[in-house]
Amino acid sequence: MEPSDEELCARVAANDRAAFEMLLDRHQERAWRVAAAILGNDAEARDVSQEAFMRLLQFAHRFDRRARFTTWFHRILVNLCIDHQRRSRWWRKFVPLAGPGADPDDEDAVDPPTEEDGPEEQTMRGEQHRRVRAALARLTPKQRAAVVMQVQEGLSSREIAAVLGCTESTARVHVHRGLIELRKLMAREA
Question: Distance between CA 131 and CA 149 in Å, rounded?
Answer without folding.
Answer: 19
